[in-house]
Amino acid sequence: MNDVRQFPLRQDRAGALWDLLLYVPTVVALAFWAAATWFNGDRSLAYLLAFLASFFFLAGANRILKTRLMLLPVAPVAIDVGADAVSVRQRDGTAIDLVKDQRVFGDLAGRSFGLTGLSGTGKRLQFVFHRGQFADDAAFGAARAALDRVAGGKSGKADKPGKSKGVGRT
Question: What are the angstrom distances between the C-alpha of 145 and each of 21, 28, 89, 91, 103?
Fold first, then answer.
């Protein structure tokens, strides 16, 4: 039987607001600190702080635009879970099939999880899904359980601190 469960995703506006409250002050503080150290003559520290401000800006923009608001063309809009493969549908209409070595990694708070795997072309891909992207908590739990079944025990669940079964752990 080739039963496929579908999990549509939606925008997580509350999560986007929290991310904005996290990233905007961080980027602004790092940028001002970089400017202050630049004009005080410590060029090396200024370059480091400017790099950090740029990095946090790009990471925050990607997190908000791709995973929270799903505005970018490569943003996942649905997950289709089959018996041995996972398909992630993107906003631009393409479907990415993870056919081998699927792994699911949860966070300690249980508010999001990551999905990795090899596509049909052999490329390793990773996706992050947040609780707010699902219709309700039951859909979030069902998606996580279905993905855990496909991963076949090769998950990096972080249920308790120090108890992760991720890559490189024994």
Answer: 31, 39, 19, 24, 12
Domain ranges of the chain: 13-68, 76-151
Rounded to 5 degrees, φ, ψ at 157 are: -60, 135
pLDDT in tens, the chain (170 residues): 468 899 999 999 999 999 999 999 999 999 999 999 999 999 999 999 999 999 999 999 999 999 999 999 999 999 999 988 899 999 999 999 999 899 999 999 989 999 999 998 999 999 999 999 999 999 999 999 999 998 886 655 554 444 444 444 43
